[in-house]
Sequence to fold (363 residues):
Amino acid sequence: MAGGGSNAQIVVADRGRDLSSTADRLAAWLGRKIEGAGAVEVQDLAYPVGAGTSNETILFQARWEKQGRVLTRSLVVRLHPGDYQIFLDPAFDRQFQLLDLVGRRGWVRVPKMLWRESDPTILGRAFFVMERVAGRVPVSFPVYNASGWLAEAAPCDRERAWLSAMAQLAAIHRIPADEVRFVHRTQFGATGFEDEFQYWMRMLEWVAPGPTPPIYAAARRWLIDNRPAAPPEGLSWGDARIGNMIFDNDFQVAAVIDWEQVSLAGGLQDLGWWLLFDDLHSLGKDVPRLEGLGTRQQTIDLWQELTGQRATDLRWYEAFAAFKLAVLSIRTAWLKGEPSVGKAFLACWLGDCLDPADLADVG
Fold:
């Protein structure tokens, strides 16, 4: 995996780890994992820039000798969030299992999963290692619509990137649900949709114990009162946005990353989240959407064409996406020791759904 363009300088998920000690520990561990490797040298440890908040992710190079040849491999270690847990259920083991299956079946372009380690004494927390995919990411910090390699690209190249991104998004939604049923959290609901909905209701209780803030309670009531009558089941990536894709030099998706929010709640969950972030990273940042990335209607039309599904109840799915992001803002603000912007966010993105009285507590 890679960082963004030349303007991306913000390391988002630095946990203050001693990278020198980490390199030594990783080297010893890899020496036991790579057959015939003997001594392994780990170099060039670095955090991704401009993206990644929920898991500590470290990029590195591994080097070893085998039968007189020097071999190198670009790898990524992704650690369990531990105390810096943004999600009620970080789905850590399910991520590895899902990506391993998806990659082996060739359903979607994902990094190759290599090893999983549950022993927390190695690096302080459980982790897994995957191959590093070369390429560029449309990062969020600074936002890709304002600067970076995508902003500097020609509109025709941006369109190629968008078309490739939409093809991978649709490929996720064509994966047979029965093949990935292990991602279903049955403790939250009997169906994929119910699981996802109740999980986020529980998330709100977890991040905001005590009396529910009025605007969150109002948004929850609206979602319950207007929930889709017959939501389709299917694999949902969860954090579906162009910023969670790695692109090669030909503006084609090389890998789809960051699957912490995976569920069986269906592709419309992803479409709603995708559209929300399209707006959030343009209108929400007071910058125009880049020409070539596809308008809202083009995105909806192409998704329907590629999946064979209908974008019904889309306002509900976008509202649910806004609710989920507002809930996450409470947790991330608490972890960073900052005030949450969730109330203002809900007022902005769900204000037309709520009674004006419900907005009274928004400062």
